[in-house]
């Protein structure tokens, strides 16, 4: 049988996971997939032992997704010695360095290790093209341009494409919009400003906004980051109401990084659904006025900041 360890919750590793599962099924494997956090050591041990009783076990595949996110690596280190037999093949998909890997060195010793951190550019761009719902507004060329400007970071490119699509609606995105709104070097700085804003650190948020303006940072970048944050919080709220509270499960469902989910979860309690709707409506109104040339973009940012911090 094959045990497929999906190590990290990232777009790159999920693409690799999808492709490997397709490969297994094409080889007539019966694939059973589980979120590692939702099962325990005993389940895996019993599954493998039961599979070893049948001659057909070479055509069975157990997929353990988000393995290193689950922090159960030490437990599974033991199972290598106790249960695996000569017919068991271990495949480990991982994306980035993770301390949990040190606790699971036997998995790497016994396994076929596939490093997903360098997903081919063509495959990454195609994944983004398939994943973005409004392809009529975001051409393959635009997606490739955004991907390159984001330094090959698929999470960042995915979020930037959503931001561009929101801004350009209902028109098609252009190279000029990409040029003015996508700057990967500024992303961390701008998102720190947004964290301060939604964390009610008013002085810090407004001081950084003025600094962005003095540095010539596009106001569209700031407004796009606000839109993204509101959208993520509301997507999380919707899933929490459905009973999904695990950060890894939320990340996989709404397709944002786990650390973003963990940072955004407190805002679900801090801001009501009504507040979220009101902020989104305010942002849409300001966006329309900017496009019509009725308001200065940075003045629109200030008005949006006031809308966030005022209860």
From TrEMBL:
Cellular component terms (Gene Ontology): DNA polymerase III complex
Query: Which InterPro entries does its entry note?
Result: DNA_pol3_clamp-load_cplx_C (IPR008921), DNA_pol3_delta-like_C (IPR048466), DNA_polIII_delta (IPR005790), P-loop_NTPase (IPR027417)
- Give the top-rank taxon of the lineage listed in the UniProt record for this protein: Bacteria
The protein's GO terms of the molecular function aspect are: DNA binding; DNA-directed DNA polymerase activity
Q: What is catalysed by this protein?
A: DNA(n) + a 2'-deoxyribonucleoside 5'-triphosphate = DNA(n+1) + diphosphate
Identify the residues that the record assigns to the DNA polymerase III delta subunit-like C-terminal domain, covering every copy.
187-306
Q: EC number(s) per UniProt?
A: 2.7.7.7
* Enzyme's top EC category: transferase
Keyword list, A-Z: DNA replication, DNA-directed DNA polymerase, Nucleotidyltransferase, Transferase
Offer one example of a GO biological process linked to this entry.
DNA-templated DNA replication
- According to its UniProt record, which protein family does this protein belong to? Belongs to the DNA polymerase HolA subunit family.
| NCBIfam families noted in UniProt | holA (TIGR01128)
| UniProt name for this protein | DNA-directed DNA polymerase
């Amino acid at each position: 049988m094959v045990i497929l360890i999906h190590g990290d919750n990232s777009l790159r590793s999920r693409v690799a996971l999808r492709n490997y599962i397709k490969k297994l099924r094409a080889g007539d494997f019966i694939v059973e997939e589980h979120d590692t956090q939702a099962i325990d050591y005993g389940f895996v041990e019993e599954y493998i032992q039961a599979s070893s009783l049948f001659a057909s076990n070479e055509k069975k595949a157990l997929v353990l997704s988000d393995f290193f996110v689950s922090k159960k690596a030490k437990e599974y280190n033991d199972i290598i010695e106790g249960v695996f037999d000569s017919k068991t093949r271990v495949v480990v998909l991982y994306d980035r360095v993770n301390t949990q890997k040190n606790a699971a060195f036997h998995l790497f010793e016994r396994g076929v290790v596939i490093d997903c951190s360098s997903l081919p550019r063509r495959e990454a761009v195609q994944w983004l093209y398939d994943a973005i719902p409004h392809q009529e507004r975001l051409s393959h060329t635009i997606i490739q341009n955004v991907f390159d400007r984001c330094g090959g970071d698929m999470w960042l490119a995915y979020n930037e494409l959503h931001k561009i699509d929101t801004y350009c609606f209902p028109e098609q995105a252009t190279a000029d919009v990409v040029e003015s709104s996508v700057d990967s070097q500024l992303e961390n700085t701008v998102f720190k400003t947004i964290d301060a804003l939604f964390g009610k650190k008013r002085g810090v948020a407004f001081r950084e906004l003025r600094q962005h303006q003095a540095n010539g940072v596009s106001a569209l970048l700031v407004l796009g980051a606000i839109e993204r944050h509101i959208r993520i919080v509301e997507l999380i709220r919707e899933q929490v109401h459905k009973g999904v509270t695990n950060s890894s499960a939320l990340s996989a469902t709404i397709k944002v990084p786990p650390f973003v989910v963990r940072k955004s979860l407190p805002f679900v309690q801090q801001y009501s659904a009504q507040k979220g709707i009101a902020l989104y409506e305010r942002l849409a109104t300001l966006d329309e006025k900017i496009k019509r040339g009725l308001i200065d973009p940075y003045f629109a940012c200030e008005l949006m900041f006031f809308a966030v911090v005022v209860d």
